[in-house]
Design brief:
heterotrimer; A mainly alpha (274); B alpha+beta (376); C mainly alpha (317); A: 274 residues; mainly alpha; MetI-like fold; B: 376 residues; alpha+beta; Rossmann fold; OB fold (Dihydrolipoamide Acetyltransferase, E2P); 10-stranded antiparallel sheet; 23% helix; 34% strand; binds adenosine-5'-triphosphate; binds magnesium ion
Amino acid sequence: MVSRALGRGGLMAILVAYTAFAGFPFLWVGTMSLRTTTEIAYNHYGWPSPAHWAKFRAAWIDSAFNTYFTNSATVVIGSVAVITLVGAAAAHCLARYRFRGNRLVYFILFSSIILPPQIVLIAVYQTLVEYNLYDTLWGLGLVYVSLQLPLTIYLLEGFFARIPQDLFDAAKVDGYGDFEIFFRLVLPVGMPAIATTVILNFILLWNEFLFAVVLISDDELRTLPVGIQRFMGDHFQDIGMIATGVMISVLPVIVVYAFFSEKLIQGMTAGAVK
Amino acid sequence: MATVQLESVSKSYGNGPLAVDSVDLSIADGEFMVLLGPSGCGKSTTLRMIAGIESITSGQLSIDGRVVNNVPARDRDIAMVFQSYALYPHMTVADNLAFGLRRRSVPKPEIARRVREVSDLLGLAPYLARKPSALSGGQRQRVALGRAMVREPQVFLFDEPLSNLDAALRVNTRNELIRQHHRLGSTMIYVTHDQVEAMTMGNRVCVMNAGRVVQIGSPLEVYWNPADTFVARFLGSPPMNLLELPASTATSGTGDWCRASNENATVPLTLWHPATLAPYAGKQMIIGVRAEDLRLGPPAETTSTGRLGWLHGRIDAIEPLGAETLVLVSANGTEVTARLGRDVSARVGEAVTLSFDAAAVHLFDPVTTKAIARER
Amino acid sequence: MPGQVASGPSAWRRLFQPGTGGDTSGASWLVLLLFLGPALLVFGAMIAYPMARTIYDSFFTIDDPDKPVWIGLANYVTLAGDETFRRAVLNTLIWSVAAPVLDVGVGLLLALCLFAKVPFTRFLRIAWFTPVLLSYVVVAIVWLWLYNYDWGIVNVMFRAVGLGGLASAWLGNPHLALGSLIFIDVWKWAGFNMVVCLAAIHSLPSEVLEAAELDNCGWGGKLRFVIVPLLRPTLLNLYILAFVAKMKVFDLVWIMTQGGPLWSTETVSTYVYKRAFAWNTFDLGYPATIASVWFGVVIVTVLLLNRLLRSRERVEF
Ligand SMILES: Nc1ncnc2c1ncn2[C@@H]1O[C@H](COP(=O)(O)OP(=O)(O)OP(=O)(O)O)[C@@H](O)[C@H]1O
Ligand SMILES: [Mg+2]
């Protein structure tokens, strides 16, 4: 009995400790984002009183956060849309049609999921320079599409292949052609899987750093992750201001997470749960 | 309204064996044709070729006199009801019904009218706004049926549409389908492996086995005159009893008559001319007798209608089914089932004699297993 | 990154099946091309071509992008004697082997805690998952502060409990820097692995666990003899996933230490980046050589891992 209670208590202690470990850094930055650097220097772990909400406005105005935001949103939304459409079409084709080379294409795409992207980094850079796409959001978006396309096709193919063939036959008998079937049957029926890949791609690309830092040099075109790094450089000692910037960049994701946590978790773990 | 004609139609998947092997089948306008056969015999494949979902490897398929081998499904004017229903999961019942019409540029008011008409007819009106996932099995089935009916096609195809329903619902829907066939008068092709459905629904039944057509005929014709031992055993429950006995000629007061017999059984073959059977003399014949034609007890000597057959055996098991009793008798190593009345006094292990009328005997060629036609 | 690799038993099995179920009536090539063409185009232009080009570039000195100079295998010879590269490979391998063990191990333990019917499971699951959502840039900034020598929480806590002697410059000490970075990685990824493990545990047939209960298995026994063996495919899958992700680790290192101090945290990715874009050497040929060699290493390791995976799979089923 005693050992059971002890075990229970130990378990609870672990849970509390880990929750603090996982959550503390974020909450700490949250408090710092509302305090001035002077206040922080006096006591790094104090509660914000008074809370300096004005810092958020200052950070937003003072730096190019709105530019970074717009750039990130443009490039990420654009490439996620393209990835979804192109990926779904390819996945449908691989899942539903029999043709010579079907499995070969699948195998090649599947293998390229494992390739570390920095292998192609230099050549991608050279290629974009040659096509005058270096330092443009178009170029970055194109690279983003190629980064996430294989995984997207892989995930969607698995789902689409499980749609019963009878549905397709029924649609054919009902008079629908290949493309109508794709748009009016596959996309709606595959929506849960598509939503999952959209979330996964969105988060991964929203946080992408390596290609963003290599392929963009114009400050006007920077995406959020690189922007924050810049911001950090500009406000080297101004911890309070950096904390505010960090919070600004994190809030959208957290807000979305607050509403769609289950779907988000599902999307993020889609590649691993089998 | 249309005829459907298959002329030596074959199908093989990839380089595999023939799934459907030169099928000849001609279905009249307004006919209800049932394709019957065991699992994997190629019924669905045949149906799907008619629908245009599966390509035809060789042979010719015509609908209403027009060769449609290379006409895509959407231009064949057919509707199909699938075993799995294949309802579009993301659409409401109303949209499911209308989906096939929208593609065919039927005017909107006309679509609405037909959907209303069919849903009233099938009792689907209360569910029009629901998704298929919120319907019971029977309701889904009716939606699938309705989806075919709103199309008002030339030909209806059904692929085991009732096999997912429970027994009571199956009977209801079966009757509903028969009614609809009478009302619409369209050509219908119906795939099933359930012989009750085949017997009750079809104008004609086409029995298939291993990709080939074995027999085509009206349900009773197929039941009473099976073309070979396969059909004989496939139709009827319990299946027809088959015995192997040597044929011989006997002489009696009325002249020569043929029979097949050994020490435990005698089967009079009076329905055939002795001349027909002459080549078989001394050979093992396959004799078929349906379970319901067997009676318990030795043959009374004084029957006028000709001779009675009999066989000796020992009772292996007795299965009382309520309205009737199945008695399994092993005779010389052959298992024979008799379908008897409610009250059977016999015991398991008892030695018994079963008798039957000469008119109940079916005869099959021992090599080809084809039926030898009766002549009297 | 999560979900970047999706190898797994089922994936491989499907790969070697003939076609997937479906349309046998042979759609026209035009239809296939329209469906598959865009994807193949992107793949060819942005993955296959750059890969071929990287290998091609590795035989040149490219000071001026317009005038590459053919130097044969000279880059490879240089690379063979490159101390920094050797250090980077070693560090990357330490990352790739150690970090996944910790990620998956901690994730599994957390999942087991949540499986033990504690209150607020749903909340804890969501809370512990949060670090996964943060970008590496943010994670790096926050942990730079947490590791701060004077006021970072790590040292503050050591001093508070009287272990001030243990307080260190976590990122400034060449002996500690790599471990400190891997620790952050575990912080970020344990929640992800926890969610996957939890889902896998919940999908275990409950009869098996009940049977173990009847056999009077304690928690330890259940864990060792029932749960871990049954979860092995999932754990293996997670390990490979993490392994491949660590082979390309860049963001965290670049922002926090830039490979320092004294190359103690240099990884292949950061080294490629430095040689290509950050040093004033202006030669794209040499980093292309590094990338090519690394490409070979990755392929070989992944093939080895897959061999492992497939032979295990046979035991599994
Ligand atoms: N897509 C396919 N690829 C290869 N072989 C197939 C395919 N579809 C069916 N077959 C084969 O063709 C034969 C006939 O199949 P079919 O589906 O027509 O049988 P069925 O009579 O409808 O059986 P059931 O009553 O079980 O539905 C079977 O041997 C089956 O294995
Ligand atoms: Mg079938």
